[in-house]
């Protein structure tokens, strides 16, 4: 079926279309196929050879898992996460009406060490999985994970989770 047969058989398109005739002429021109001259093709884009050294640029002989973690979450990244989390919490507190009993009223800024502990708990929860978040801090012996209580309270963890932020919403495009 060539383009003329298609246009004649598709009368429903003409009924619903409210485009101008110039648009239809453009579509007809786009449907005309032409041969590509294989001898006069445009040159391909330049290829730039990779000259770097692939892999980690640090020695990892006998390293512990925490050292691997610190490669990706160095002080700059963790500090940035802490500052954006604090900024988001301050913005939230300023822009929202909070009742006197709101847990947000008790917000204290996070620092680098607290963000590291928080991220460690998140990784731990990926390994030791429980159906409910609160079960990690449960008082019941079968459900509890006593080690987490020593690191951070459930309330502090949940408030950091609420405000955890990685970018400034005011400057995002």
From TrEMBL:
Residues 1-25 are annotated as: Disordered. Residues 64-171 form the PiggyBac transposable element-derived protein domain. It comes from the Eukaryota. Pfam families: DDE_Tnp_1_7 (PF13843). This is PiggyBac transposable element-derived protein 4. The gene is PGBD4_416.
């Amino acid at each position: 079926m060539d383009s003329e047969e298609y246009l004649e058989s598709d009368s429903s398109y003409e009924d619903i279309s409210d485009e101008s005739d110039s648009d239809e002429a453009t579509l007809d021109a786009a449907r005309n196929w032409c041969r590509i001259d294989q001898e006069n093709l445009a040159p391909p884009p330049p290829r730039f050879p990779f000259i770097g050294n692939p892999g980690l640029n640090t020695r990892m002989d006998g390293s512990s898992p925490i050292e691997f973690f610190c490669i990706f979450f160095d002080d700059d990244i963790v500090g940035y996460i802490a500052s954006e989390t604090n900024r988001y919490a301050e913005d939230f507190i300023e822009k929202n009406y909070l009742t006197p009993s709101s847990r947000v009223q008790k917000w204290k800024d996070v620092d680098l060490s607290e963000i590291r502990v928080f991220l460690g708990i998140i990784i731990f929860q990926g390994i030791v999985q429980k159906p409910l978040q609160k079960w990690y801090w449960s008082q019941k012996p079968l459900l509890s994970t006593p080690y987490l209580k020593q690191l951070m309270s459930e309330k502090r963890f949940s408030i950091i989770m609420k405000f955890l932020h990685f970018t400034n919403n005011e400057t995002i495009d």
